[in-house]
Amino acid sequence: MPHLKQQAARQLGHVGITTIAFLGLNWLNELVFIQFEQSSGINWVFLPAGIRLLATLLFGFAGFVGLLLAGFYLNFHHFAFQDEARAVYGAVAGAGGPYLAYLFAKHWFDLGPRLGNLTAGRLLFTGVLCGIMSPAFHHAFMWVQTGLVDWTALAAMITGDIVGILIVLTLAKGLITLTDPRDVDAHLR
Fold first, then answer.
1. What's the rounded Cα separation, in Å, for the pair 151 and 165?
2. Domains of the chain, each with CATH number or no CATH
């Protein structure tokens, strides 16, 4: 039983980390990249998309739950959508697209524990897939609801998500390189 409690605590921690990281990057994105906003909630540079990818790759379903909670919070308390259905499907699309991209990558690339078999090329492919799926789901829901697709907004969302993913992956790689204890000797030379 103690093992189950530890697992549950770890999963809750992953949900919390994901939620906080997403909300923090959303705040930073609005602060730094507001001039790249195509329309309300759609930006040509969207850093939180990088957290969507990392959270699902690192935490799996717990990352999905954290993204979903962050999406609900933002859509109901920050963006203030007039239509509750849009707020709900926006949160589901924002969490579901990246999680589905992760599941596809896990299957296609036979990702094992600790993301075995995830090469740089496969990570880039998964990042692009993630950057397409979430916006596609957002606009598919809009199409079902209204019968219309805003192609400019869809292009902006896809571009913004992919650019955000690439920026976050580059920063994450830099941080890993700087903090990797195996390379201490290489840094000292």
1. 21
2. 2-179 (1.10.1760)
The single-letter DSSP state of residue 47 is: T
For the chain, the C-alpha Rg in angstroms (whole number) is 17
Beta carbons of 76 and 69 less than 8 angstroms apart: no
Residue 39: beta bridge partners?
Answer: 42
DSSP state of 78: I
Structure-block tokens of residue 170: 């580059």
CA distance 126 to 101: 6
The DSSP H or E segment spanning 43 is: strand 42-43
Give the β-pairing of 42-43 and 37-39.
antiparallel
pLDDT 10s digit of each residue in the chain, 189 long? 678 889 999 999 999 999 999 999 999 999 999 888 888 778 999 999 999 999 999 999 999 999 999 999 999 988 877 789 888 999 999 999 999 999 999 999 988 777 878 888 888 999 999 999 999 999 998 898 889 999 999 999 999 999 999 999 888 877 777 776 665 455 444
Residue 187, helix vs strand vs coil:
helix
